[in-house]
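Final report, results section. Input specification for complex C-07:
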Amino acid sequence: MMLRARFCLLATPFLTLMVMATRLDAQEPRLAGRLPGPVLQRIDSLLDAARRNGLPTEPLVDRALEGLAKGAAPDRIEPAVLRLSDELRLARTAFGDAATAAELMAGASAIRAGATTESLLRLRESRPDQPLTVPAGVLADLVAAGVDIQDGVTAVLAIVAAEDADYVAFRRNVERDIALGASPAAALGVRLRGMTEVLVPGDASVGVGSGGTRRKRKP
Amino acid sequence: MVENGDDLARIAESLREPVRIDPALDARVMAEIEALPRQPSRLDSRGHWLFRRRTFRLSPMGVLAMAAGLAALVLVAGRVGANRAEPPGAATGPPVEDQAAAGGPGQTTQFVFVAPDARSVSIVGDFNDWSFSATPLEQQPGDGLWWVTLSLPPGRYRYAFVVDGTRWRKDPNSPAAEDEFGRPNSVVTIGGP
Amino acid sequence: MKDESDAVLVRRVLAGERQAFARLVERYRDPLGRYAVRMLGNAADAEDVLQDTFVRAYRSLTRCRPDDFGRWLFAILVNRCRTHAAQRGRRNGILRANQHVVDAAFVSASDERDALREAIALALERLPAEQREAFLLKHVEELSYQEMHELTGTGIAALRMRVFRAREELRRLLAETIRG
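Structure output:
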């Protein structure tokens, strides 16, 4: 008798808390209790919708967790998650149903940086059997370093035959040149010439982008 | 004067002649394919990869049982875990969704931060639920160099260093990532199948 | 044995039947081989790239729409030929313009035709890779410029230019052989 009473006493607070949690349908345990109820519900609906559409939910949860870690208000966290889910959906339109979560995350970053779905589609078609995670990621990184998005797209497509490691090396070189004072367009152009000369040595007809026309920087 | 069209036609016609490749190629291809590891099928009927995150809803009784079990675990773990140094980043990250599809093991990535005056440095990011405590960096004695090595499956991970628990810092060795919450971010991209 | 369509075979492979892929390899070995041999200049390299292409196709088959298998496979091949040329270039420093093996894949009919074939093959090798690729896609694989654009990601204007230059150069190089 005594034992059962004590057991019930111990269990009650847990039970109450947990039952409350399940009633709120908090599917994402890592967010439960850290956001106001209505916000949490809307984010959970968003996660549900993403799941139903075959989109990865982990990046969405991560975005919310990032906001929480940085002490952001719920009314900044919610639109951030919504925006990312839109970007993932667009990335999937471009990369196709078979795209991996890694590719979609990178594609979403590229879209955030200003890439059109059209340009990502061209990337997919130019590199049909290799993951696009690194090329799309490099595109976003180049824009973060100051490269114009159109120039970045041209560059990424121009070296589409390169391996992932070469993409990373290319990006590092451009970033370093910019950090040392070169203009982003010039750094991109020079490093691109270096890459395409490696890919087809001795070929005088290979130049920047397609047909050798240099894109003008936007004022 | 010159039948340019005919020249071109003869060149093209010659090149269009069929080529016979040694049929032994087939066996070599299939041998290489047979040697590939068999992965559990993660395809639905349309041949699409599945993105499924397991969520579970608990009945109140299930919750009670789980709470009791968890309480017991915490008690035990509290006594046992104190002296065991867990490898950084090992069990702290959330399950990455298509890790099975990606072929499992991640790529070893080292993060280094220079902060001679810091008392503590940790890394927070997409790979550890942005937890301040999950992944502290180790300090090279006397050098102001802090570092940690993580195993990351393919993906794009935003992160930052947090110095002395309060100061957010970008990684000077990595590209910047757009931040929408008022603190600097870096990003690392891991490629792979 | 009944001739199953690409789509049916692809779906069988996706369902776990690895051996069904062998039928696809058999079906596409020669057509793909023709492009690879012309592009790379010899059968040994072509076979290496073909093997690489088929294995990659198998490994990423989930990305393929079953009805588009042939075109999708060919896109992989074009891509691998480019990479192969790049790696080969890196190893040797220069494209091997004159190393060329007249291989058993050619059905020999007469000395004259053999001479022409060899001359054409040598001339092709001397084109820059991009021009050779564009020329082969246009005049051997007989793709439209739109299809070439979708395949390579290169703009149509640039593709036209490459084909034009390739034609001019080939004509120039082969003028004596053809008329002589």
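Residues 33 and 191 of chain A are 49 Å apart (CA to CA). Confidence is low (pLDDT under 50) at residues 18-26, 202-219 of chain A. This concludes the modelling results for the funded period.
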